[in-house]
Amino acid sequence: MGKVNLRGHIVGLVSLRALAIASAFGVMSGAVAQADLADQIAKADLGYGEYLAGECVTCHRKSGTGIPQINGIEAETFVTIMQAYRSKDLDNKVMQMMAGRLDDEQIISLAAYFSSLPE
Ligand code: HEC
Description:
With 119 residues, this protein is mostly helical. The protein has a single domain (9-116), classed as Cytochrome c-like domain (Cytochrome Bc1 Complex, Chain D, domain 2). Helix content is 60%, strand content 0%. The protein has six helices and no strands. Helix 4 crosses helix 5 (93-100) and helix 4 packs across helix 6 (104-116). The chain binds heme C. Residues 55-56, 58-60, 67-68, 70, 73, 78, 81-82, 90, 92, 94-95, 98, 110 line the site of heme C (HEC).
């Protein structure tokens, strides 16, 4: 990992950890988890997302490559897709490997960044 500005992430990290603990104890309803995800996305650091996106855009260019264009995908959908690749529920070796290297905070930052771009 290169040098990134971590200031904005501390809050996100703390609440993601709280989310993990809460789900571990089974005290969190799906609705609350969903609201929390929207909250995480709203607070995400776009600069960090842009930084992480560097390795995605080598494949995901605007058009004409045969690889799907991912700009403008709605953020919660984006998170769901990435988590599905990470858990191997979605079947693509390359994306399973890419997603497998990302933690939740990184996926959320990427979702916030790509969803902010025009299609
Ligand atoms: C080596 C090339 C490559 C790289 C690098 C790559 N992807 Fe992909 N990505 C693909 C391919 C190919 C698909 C289509 C997979 C499929 O058909 O399931 C895909 C699919 C996706 C999709 C689903 C798009 C859709 O419309 O269904 C998302 C979201 C995505 N990638 C995000 C990312 C992110 C975020 C990164 C960077 C962390 C990344 N990808 C890096 C090749 C790549």
